Amino acid sequence: MPNTPSGPRVGLFVTCLADMFRPSVAFATVKLLEQAGCTVEVPERQTCCGQPAFNSGDRKTTADIARQTIDAFDGYEYVVGPSGSCIGMLHYYPEVFEPSDSYYQRALDLKSRSFEVTSFLFDVIGADALQEQLKLLQFNHKVTYHDSCSGLRQLGIKQQPRELLQQVQGVELEEMEEAETCCGFGGTFCVKYPEISNRMVSNKTDNISNTGAHTLLGGDLGCLLNMAGKLKREGKAVEARHVVEILAGMADIPAIGEADYDLAQQL
Amino acid sequence: MQINTPFFKQRAHDALADENLQKALGNLKAGFPEKRAIAVDRMPEFEQLRNQGRDLKNHILEHLDLYLEQFESKVIENGGQVHWARTAEDANKIILDLCKQVDAKTVTKGKSMVTEEIGLNDYLEANGVQPVETDLGEYILQLREDHPSHIIAPAIHLNLEDVSEAFHEHHKRPKSDDPAVLMQEAREVLRDKFVAADVGITGANFCVAETGSTIIVTNEGNGDLTQTLPKTHIVVTSIEKVVPTLEDMTLFLRLLARSATGQEFTVYNTLSTGPRREGDQDGPENFHVVLVDNGRSEMVGSEFQDMLRCIRCSACMNHCPVYGAVGGHSYGWVYPGPMGSVLTPQMIGIEKGGMLPNASTFCGKCESVCPVKIPLPKLMRHWREDEFQKHLQPKAARYGLAGWAFMAKRPVLYKPYTRMASWFMKRLAGKKGRIKKLPLAGGWTDWRDMPAPQGTTFMTAWKEQQKNGEQS
């Protein structure tokens, strides 16, 4: 239910994983932003934030992708995406350019107006902007929340998703041990060092199931795919979802790695 | 010390399968991080101290030559000598010469990572001088012909049974598994060594330019005995340890103890300011400081300069989930954990040390607990850049990245490509919603399922929806 489009014009940063694996996360983000009064647009020229290149040490490709992203999101009041990691990458862009480069100032400018979605809703729009909509929702389950590393340490995302969640009827948040410890995903790390990554994610799934939660929530699909995949392999009956799916009232679609679901047929 | 860093992956594999080690690492995880958190909570100005520590270290590194010269002249003024060692080999030679000068048969040693770095023990032994480690952890390792796996808790990879076994074998006393009994046993054995030693070698946590003093901090008191009983005391330390004043030193002591063990202050803080003076009750007759460079001056002014702020507290490794999973020996050389992942390639070369900067998820926990705010992930990334430029990364990774980059830089191609990948994986998953074995991603599906995509990409679905919306 879009509100009056008098609010800010927001460019949606879709993120690769949401685009490829779970478009519903991007749709949920659009829905929340519109409920908060924003006009949402999806720039066509965007691809990926460039993190794989940046973390592999390929500065040239990182800079090329950064330029492309800066151009794609030129003119939007805000840039919002459903991932602390990818938005965190956008915040690294100024480091990619020499201060003399014409893109340096534009990178700083992009940094100042790009936000992870829960932080945008809570810190920029304000805690009560979505109150009416969230109050109407029901999710009668015990949930636990994983703090993804980039969002937590780079962008200071900790209480925002929790505060928003608590406004949903029935949500019981049970914190897990080591909620702030890395799940072992780490982009290419999980492929380069699968055994170490496996140990880290096993620790995580133990901590998750120890809470007795019905649902694992988080703000980054990379971590969630990793943990959901491990939970499934271990046969643990914990659902994994991106937090925006709950906030947007989309908890009826199958959780990550659950039974067959064809979004294409739903549209 | 032998360099096993290129075998990181194999060593990590072995470490993950080593039940004893995993038990020991479990203890670490519950210990230091929790104690640090409590100590930090008790000190509201801790964050401010970290900023001060970082700024002061930066200032020192900007004027490193100045403070080192001041330190040297003060040591000489106090009656000691300073020796400059550009390489590990130089340092070993200088130390052996000093031992030979007093015809030393045995030297006692306080814990020193720099002497591990230069391989001093092997060198002394090969040249007829017997080193005796006196830090309890180091002593245990020496008995077991082992090496430290941690910079402040060197034997953290061992369990009580391992220690009991080693003591029983070497001390020929009845076996015990009571830590107090074992401690007393080590104390008795070591007491004679302290008295008999011709030379005492310690490291230094800091060198104070203002007074020409060096300081070691320990929780056992072995450092005091090492440096006061023998006639000759040799301090082996590295150039970045210098601080301007005693006051500055106290700032770092406050940061160090809290970050390392969660103590308000380390139990023994022992300052050495030159040899024994007339009327002094104790102290060595000869006082030497060997200042080791070993690649550090190359870091000054480079993109790795920030690493020289490190005060060797071990907070980064105590909090690192990778270190916590595989332990220090997996890193294959002296310095483990995140700090080692930056420092090791500098010292042994990125060709041999390249595994380490890659063995990180960049979770950032290390940086968030570093008392002097070293941007460890950023520095590891710099190493990856170095590797990338030198084409050192495995071919598969390079080609994979190049292929992905080609697409990511071309939105028009990227969209059909992601759509195809999404469709393909959806097909692989079938009705289950997840993939048990994904081609080319064995590393992933060996250990976990790959959740299936929802069937189309967002970009496609969005465009479709917009089109339909306009029509209706």
UniProtKB/TrEMBL annotation, chain A:
<dbReference type="Pfam" id="PF02754">
    <property type="entry name" value="CCG"/>
</dbReference>
<dbReference type="GO" id="GO:0005829">
    <property type="term" value="C:cytosol"/>
</dbReference>
<dbReference type="GO" id="GO:0016491">
    <property type="term" value="F:oxidoreductase activity"/>
</dbReference>
<feature type="domain" description="Cysteine-rich">
    <location>
        <begin position="10"/>
        <end position="90"/>
    </location>
</feature>
<protein>
    <submittedName>
        <fullName>Fe-S oxidoreductase</fullName>
    </submittedName>
</protein>
<dbReference type="InterPro" id="IPR004017">
    <property type="entry name" value="Cys_rich_dom"/>
</dbReference>
<feature type="domain" description="Cysteine-rich">
    <location>
        <begin position="143"/>
        <end position="227"/>
    </location>
</feature>
TrEMBL record, chain B:
<dbReference type="Pfam" id="PF11870">
    <property type="entry name" value="LutB_C"/>
</dbReference>
<keyword id="KW-0408">Iron</keyword>
<dbReference type="InterPro" id="IPR017896">
    <property type="entry name" value="4Fe4S_Fe-S-bd"/>
</dbReference>
<dbReference type="GO" id="GO:0006089">
    <property type="term" value="P:lactate metabolic process"/>
</dbReference>
<keyword id="KW-0813">Transport</keyword>
<feature type="domain" description="4Fe-4S ferredoxin-type">
    <location>
        <begin position="301"/>
        <end position="331"/>
    </location>
</feature>
<dbReference type="InterPro" id="IPR009051">
    <property type="entry name" value="Helical_ferredxn"/>
</dbReference>
<keyword id="KW-0411">Iron-sulfur</keyword>
<dbReference type="InterPro" id="IPR003741">
    <property type="entry name" value="LUD_dom"/>
</dbReference>
<keyword id="KW-0249">Electron transport</keyword>
<dbReference type="GO" id="GO:0051539">
    <property type="term" value="F:4 iron, 4 sulfur cluster binding"/>
</dbReference>
<keyword id="KW-0004">4Fe-4S</keyword>
<keyword id="KW-0677">Repeat</keyword>
<dbReference type="InterPro" id="IPR017900">
    <property type="entry name" value="4Fe4S_Fe_S_CS"/>
</dbReference>
<dbReference type="GO" id="GO:0046872">
    <property type="term" value="F:metal ion binding"/>
</dbReference>
<dbReference type="Pfam" id="PF02589">
    <property type="entry name" value="LUD_dom"/>
</dbReference>
<keyword id="KW-0479">Metal-binding</keyword>
<protein>
    <submittedName>
        <fullName>Iron-sulfur cluster binding protein</fullName>
    </submittedName>
</protein>
<dbReference type="InterPro" id="IPR037171">
    <property type="entry name" value="NagB/RpiA_transferase-like"/>
</dbReference>
<dbReference type="InterPro" id="IPR024185">
    <property type="entry name" value="FTHF_cligase-like_sf"/>
</dbReference>
<dbReference type="Pfam" id="PF13183">
    <property type="entry name" value="Fer4_8"/>
</dbReference>
<dbReference type="InterPro" id="IPR024569">
    <property type="entry name" value="LutB_C"/>
</dbReference>
